[in-house]
């Protein structure tokens, strides 16, 4: 059982779609919602068939800061880890959720972004960290050097 967590500003639509009908991979996407590409990731989109309730979407508004993001991320991931009990976690760390990204609209600091990684590491489950979006090169470099 694998847990895929996406903190890129865009909905993790491709990965969610790939595993939408299975319970072997659970996807959790924290993303900008509304009139924003790709326009998917409604809170009611939860999977289908055997995958019902194995897709979780956390649609967010513009301006999410460290404290607001942490206040959602930690309790949601805590509960997912307790209930789903994954054998491995994949974290997609798109840097476009950082403040100052030219396409993003969140206000996360590098420290706030890294807090998500730190929290997932605290569960002592094998963890793979992937890059993702990031449209301001300095932010991408700072994000990966920090994390």
The CATH superfamily is Histone deacetylase domain
N-to-C span: 25 Å
For this entry, what is the oligomeric state of its chains? single chain
CATH architecture: 3-Layer(aba) Sandwich
Largest sheet: 5 strands, parallel
CATH class category: Alpha Beta
**SS strand fraction:** 15-25%
User: Number of helical segments?
Assistant: 4
Query: What's the total number of strands?
Result: 5
How many separate domains?
1
Overall morphology: globular
The CATH topology name reads: Arginase, Chain A
Global mean pLDDT: 94
How would you sum up this structure in a few lines?
The chain has about 150 residues and is an alpha/beta fold. The chain contains four helices and five strands; from the N terminus they run E-H-E-E-H-E-H-E-H. The longest helix has 19 residues, at about 65-85.
Topology:
Layout: E1 2-6, H1 13-18, E2 25-32, E3 55-60, H2 66-84, E4 88-92, H3 110-121, E5 127-130, H4 137-146
Parallel strand pairs: 1-2, 1-4, 2-3, 4-5
Helix pairs in contact: 2-3, 3-4
Task: Please explain how this structure is put together.
By secondary structure, the chain is α/β, with parallel strands linked by helices. It has a single domain (2-146), classed as Histone deacetylase domain (Arginase, Chain A), CATH 3.40.800. The protein has four helices and five strands; from the N terminus they run βαββαβαβα. Strands 3-2-1-4-5 form a five-stranded parallel sheet, with helices on one face. Strand 4 (88-92), helix 3 and strand 5 (127-130) form a beta-alpha-beta unit. It is globular, with a radius of gyration of 14 Å. The two termini are 25 Å apart. The model has no long low-confidence stretch (mean pLDDT 94).
């Amino acid at each position: 059982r694998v847990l895929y967590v996406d903190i890129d500003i865009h909905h993790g639509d491709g990965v969610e779609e790939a595993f939408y009908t299975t319970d072997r991979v659970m996807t959790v996407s924290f993303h900008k919602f509304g009139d924003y590409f790709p326009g998917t990731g409604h809170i009611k989109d939860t999977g289908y068939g055997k995958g019902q309730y194995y897709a979780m979407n956390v649609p967010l508004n513009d301006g999410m800061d460290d404290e607001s993001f942490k206040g959602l991320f930690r309790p949601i991931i805590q509960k997912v880890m307790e209930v789903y009990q994954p054998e491995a976690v994949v974290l997609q760390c798109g840097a476009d959720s950082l403040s100052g990204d030219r396409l993003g609209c969140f206000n996360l600091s590098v420290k706030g972004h890294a807090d998500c990684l730190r929290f997932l590491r605290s569960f002592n489950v094998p963890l793979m960290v992937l890059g993702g979006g990031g449209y301001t090169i300095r932010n991408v470099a700072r994000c990966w050097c920090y994390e």
